[in-house]
Amino acid sequence: MTDGRTRRRDDTKQRLYDAAMELIAEHGFSSTTVDDIAVAAGVAKGTVYYNFPSKNALFEALLRHGVGLLTTDFRAAVAGAGTPPEQAVALIRAELAYIQRHRSFAQLLLSEMWRTNREWHQTLHLLRDEAVGVIAEVLERGVAEGHFDADLDVRMASAALFGVCLVVAVDWLVFEPDRSLESVQDSLIAVIRARVGI
Amino acid sequence: MTDGRTRRRDDTKQRLYDAAMELIAEHGFSSTTVDDIAVAAGVAKGTVYYNFPSKNALFEALLRHGVGLLTTDFRAAVAGAGTPPEQAVALIRAELAYIQRHRSFAQLLLSEMWRTNREWHQTLHLLRDEAVGVIAEVLERGVAEGHFDADLDVRMASAALFGVCLVVAVDWLVFEPDRSLESVQDSLIAVIRARVGI
Amino acid sequence: MTDGRTRRRDDTKQRLYDAAMELIAEHGFSSTTVDDIAVAAGVAKGTVYYNFPSKNALFEALLRHGVGLLTTDFRAAVAGAGTPPEQAVALIRAELAYIQRHRSFAQLLLSEMWRTNREWHQTLHLLRDEAVGVIAEVLERGVAEGHFDADLDVRMASAALFGVCLVVAVDWLVFEPDRSLESVQDSLIAVIRARVGI
Amino acid sequence: MTDGRTRRRDDTKQRLYDAAMELIAEHGFSSTTVDDIAVAAGVAKGTVYYNFPSKNALFEALLRHGVGLLTTDFRAAVAGAGTPPEQAVALIRAELAYIQRHRSFAQLLLSEMWRTNREWHQTLHLLRDEAVGVIAEVLERGVAEGHFDADLDVRMASAALFGVCLVVAVDWLVFEPDRSLESVQDSLIAVIRARVGI
DNA sequence: CATGAATGAGCATTCATTCAT
DNA sequence: CATGAATGAATGCTCATTCAT
Q1: Is B144:A61 a contact under the CB 8 Å cutoff?
Q2: Is the domain of C65 the same as that of C38?
Q3: Which Pfam families does the UniProt entry name for this protein (chains A, B, C, D) (predicted)?
Q4: Domain span including residue B26
């Protein structure tokens, strides 16, 4: 039955996604072999190529998948909070939580986001704009409504906010994995709020 | 003459460093071949193996070299400024300037810094502590002297500061390469200073 | 209905023949994939294996089919002409016409006819004898009836005649495809007739 | 020493040529693996790729090599004979002799010469013109000097002569390998000369 | 009758490493 | 001190074949 076949195929694709995500995040794209992915997904190597035209294509699909989830989380965070400052806090929490759940993907972004001349660079660029764009919207609204400094460089601020969460979260998961999400979130917000006075 | 030979050898090593840095930063470690490095350095492939025991060893030496330079710049920045807040600003400037000069190395750090299970992970970890440690010292002194909030999470703050500079700088060089160092620095400091009010 | 099903099955087989002939002739046996054949025939890959036990078997059937048609044409040409010399001309015309209609098959023969150690070599050998045999018969009769030189090496002459038509026809179709069949036929007969005087 | 290294490399290349020629002629291009070639040449697989950029490139070099030799033989045959008819006979003998020595190459030509859409088609086309061109020159001179029919289609005649030798020679080597070159040559010339009377 | 997802052996190609010169 | 020819294990990808539906 079509239904059965389709379900079977979707299963396979999902298992390949999961396996590839884990492996590529841990070892990087080039060091992850298609063989590894197949073994981890519990299928034959040919099955990878039956479901994706190439290793690159699988990776691109992966990026799309991962950033899509993140953007969805971002949108939900914004929708669930009231004022821009509250939304910003919600975004930070959402990003940290996402990274906690998909640590591997965060390492992937860190590795690939600013690397040019890769086949999937274009794809990643667009996806990034999608995700960071949600942050930028909030900051813009915050500026418009007088919550944030009027001359805030929104582009840089959103990139910086996105990036600092990324870096802090990954650092946390690598070096202090036992610390709780709440603790990290509180510290990070404190750091951002801190009148560092510089 | 020994002197001449040594100098010649150092030359070769330096050229290999430069070539490898450029290539690995641009394409990643796995995607850079020893052949590429040899060609870019203008030597035969065997020469790479005459000067370094392996590709991994070359890369470790590279990391040591690069982080060493950064740490030196950090120390100079601290020495050239008075109070901790001034030192912090000097550190930001130093990091941005370093990345501008060695953009490739920054991308390298971003890719490798938080990736475990690589042969050189240990090395990189130690080096990172060396560099980030300089930032931490300044923040600690700032807290001790009452410049910064007393309950500042210094560990996280220094990691965050290091990371945010890294991310902002790379983002700058990739997406707005024509912007000046000063402009970026000013914006970044403004963003950090901003009573974001969250 | 049995009739309907049979016809449908024959349709599928014919479409597979046509598709395979075209593709194998153009790209060779090894470079033609079963996938290509299925797509070109507009059926699923499994259908190829439902109708033929293997790719090799499909190819053998193809050879049988193609040479069978050629032999039939040869027989018709002989039957439609009077004396051996006239029959020889008719054979030349038949071969050229056949190749014009099935150019792909001619290229196939050229590639495979003299290649030993292929699974289907035996098959092809027998088929060849069938077709070239018709030419040989005509030449033999021509010798017996005094039309041709008494000491003609009939075996070689028939092979040579068969081959020269093959080569000339393929050359024509590849390099001067706009030339007419008649023109080629006339030139070829003139060349054969020519007292080259060597 | 450069000399030693160079000689060693040339040796390797020659051995690869020989091995590849034999194998590709016998089994065809697609069915011959680089592994086979390496084993037959007595080197490691990587060595093939150290000496040629790809399997295709090796094959193109092979074609150049083989047709080059044939053309040289053709030129020598023409130079060693007096009148165009004598030169034509010498060419036939040269072609038969060449094919006897390089039977594999002849099968190769038969398979590839009229196959379009292959990467090396262009190369082969040019090479063919070079070799067949020598025959055409002789025929042209023969016509000009009144040895051959004035309205001879030289283009076709040279292609036909080249092709008929090819076909006859291969047929000979496959089906009557014990027959002598002289015998075949005599029969072939007799066939060509025969007032077939068609 | 026909389908198409899945398989795994096989292939062209790459590349870190060795070593004779 | 430097070279570059040679190596062979590893890798991305192909494709004939199988089989559950």
Answers
A1: no
A2: no
A3: TetR_C_24, TetR_N
A4: 1-52
